[in-house]
## 1
Amino acid sequence: MPIYHQLGNVPHKRHTTHEKPEGGIYYEQLFGTEGFHGMSSLLYHVHRPTMIRSISEGVDVAPRAAISKNISPMMLQGWNVSPDSDFLKSRVHVLFNNDLNIALAAPSKSLDSYFYKNADADEMIFVHQGSGKLRTLVGNIDFVYGDYLVIPRGMIYQIEFNTSENRLFIVESFSPILTPKRYRNDFGQLLEHAPFCERDIRRPDHLETIDQKGDYIVKIRKENVMHEIVYATHPFDVVGWDGYNYPYAFSIHDFEPITGRVHQPPPVHQTFEAHNFVVCSFCPRLYDYHPKAIPAPYNHSNIDSDEVLYYVDGDFMSRNHVDKGYISLHPGGIPHGPHPGAYERSIGKKETGELAVMVDTFKPLKVTQAAVDLSDKSYITSWLE
Ligand SMILES: [Fe+2]
């Protein structure tokens, strides 16, 4: 995240001694996301972050394709995924390609018996239901309904939920998740025409420093294999850090929609970008105000994009029979558009309360068996009159 941030104590100069009050020095770690040129932070640990006790044999957790070359529109009834008490096992991958995985999850318990690190992917966790606290080695972030949690790859974390009723929409991105470049100036500052600004970005605000020795399990996802490493010290032993690489939260309710006299194209809803995909937020807003405007989207054929919409709340104007937690997939190669009646119904309407998250991928998505099992088989003919 291109805002400098600091928590706890750091020495005046980088790569110099940071002395412990009781004697000895803290152990510095450069924590970057792309080589030595991407965003990074400098962390100061009580103990060496390299004290491995054991590494267990990895378990293959790669998503598998039930349909690898898909051209069918699909509607997944995402709310039907089963809750699971384990945070990682609750994650049901539905769509994926070489750039990202898309998953749904209904974790019913906090993740507190082990730690998790995704070494493959930045994670964007959209909180559809639930609240709690994201705990990381660089500090904590409280979250509620509507928050996007953006967690850079390599970040060790746990997550606390306040209740057992939690619903998450998750994107695992194999490249850094960034704010749109066109909304940033040369210094990384968000520009005046951006639909959100730095005040909306919630950074970690409470650094826990836990100086403990023992056996601490960190589950690490790398190359789609889940490894289990036992460390000899508590992973959250950082006394201070500074830099640009850290998790943050952004509420979809803080996204300020861009509207116009006639229909505005999806890029006005863009919130994040990564290599080969974008994430957009469709938020409650006033409709187009030309006297003859048609607020519903025109049919469109972005021949090179697969379009995934995750329906969060409100009445979704262009779809019939859509409920919260549903996911539509409109693959590239064929046009898609509003359902019969939706186009006409939208004329003269003043506003919408719809809330949805869209992921547009520039390479085709593969479909898992879990997605097939969640899908409404009648969807492909739902435009017939
Ligand atoms: Fe679309």
Note: The first helix runs from residue 342 to 346.
## 2
Amino acid sequence: MTQKFTPDPALKPTPEFKSDEYVPLKKEVYVKAGEDMSDKGYQEGTLAGAIRMRMRRDNKRFWAGDNISDYLHDSDKEHLITETTLAFEKVLDALLIDRENDPNSKGTAKRLAKMYFNEIMAGRYEQAPDATAFPNDSADRYEGMLVVRSELRSMCSHHHQPVSGVAYIGIIAAEKLIGLSKYTRIAQWCARRGTLQEELCNDIAREISKATESENVAVYVQAVHGCCENRGIMAHSSLTQTTVLKGAFKEDQGTKKEFFDNIKMQQEFAPR
Ligand SMILES: [Zn+2]
């Protein structure tokens, strides 16, 4: 037996609408002057769209963990925050949150946009911290190991949940030394993006190696992940550890042991 279908009166189409008529879209499409459109057709006139197009044209990767500061002018950030605010307003609307009347949700779209650009993803949009190097080439130069503990705040690319922890950065001093705070500044610049802990560990090792010109670099990161604590497995005491070893740290067992012994001493001195 088939049931007779009765349309919901609330969902009835308006009487003037006829399904066989084409309804022209009123949406205006802007094209930024001076851009080469030949390969991608039209581009909507957002600044983010224009920047994305330039990166695609140059085969520049712009994943959540990549730094794209070379593609931004100083004045772009404010404009991008405005565009992102409008986009977050749409997200809040889709979540059915009354951002007009709920006093706590009124400025949320703007707050989110500013927080992404200026804080939790700042390491994508800012140039690398200036790490002035001092020569380490005199007769009594420092040749030992240096281990610096850096506090990290990051965000996972998968869920945009907070990641917090510490990185232990070890190097064997080369011809150049950088200020102690620079290790942490570089680590935080790498962390303030959408990351995977494994990639973050690699990124810190690469950037420290670049700034110090030392091939002997080790990075150990331990962190807790909001995406394991606040959702999914809800594991509030889970801890993830990753290690990247390069040069002597990888090849020489004594150097590797000294690095991990140093970490243990640091942890005894100031448990995290
Ligand atoms: Zn996650």
Note: The chain has nine helices and seven strands.
